[in-house]
What does this fold into?
Amino acid sequence: MLPHIIDDWADKAPSNTAFRCAGSALSYAELAEQSDQLAYALKDNGVAPGDRVGIYMHKTIETAVAVFGIMKASAAYVPIDPLAPTRRLADVIRDASIRHLITQDLRKSSVAEVIDAGVDLARTIGLTTDELPVANLTWSDIYSAPTSRRPAAPKPGDMAYLMYTSGSTGEPKGIIHSHESGLSYALFAARTYGLNQ
It folds into this structure.
């Protein structure tokens, strides 16, 4: 499935670049290891197969780790526009039943606002401080945990991610994508745009 293609390349070409963002890069080996670490951290902190985990952050190296780590935990990721108004953030968190939110310090005040408004989050992931009234895991907490095994592979029909429509014609709607459909699109895009490893 989608995250295990990364693992395959980590075995075949571990030092090749898997992801670049804002002048930083991760090799396939680094992306595989860090996403494994996140997957186990999520499981150890109550994320069960099929749970939805929000990603509310501007693009960084950790964005790729978040996407693949969530899927490796057999959960589904829910991307939330980091520039969306606070009400939209709250609506998506409630509608998708998100209890764990991967975010960053830049978005901390918006997260605080939705918590103050009664949104029920169990944990934030990625903040550098514990100022909010919910549990938090830092990236250094996650990356300091050793991994000696890979998480179990999700099944083709399992939910991989949940994408919300813009809501321009009414309420935003969540569209479920399975690992099978996500993989089909990724392979199509790779062929169409001439991408290789």
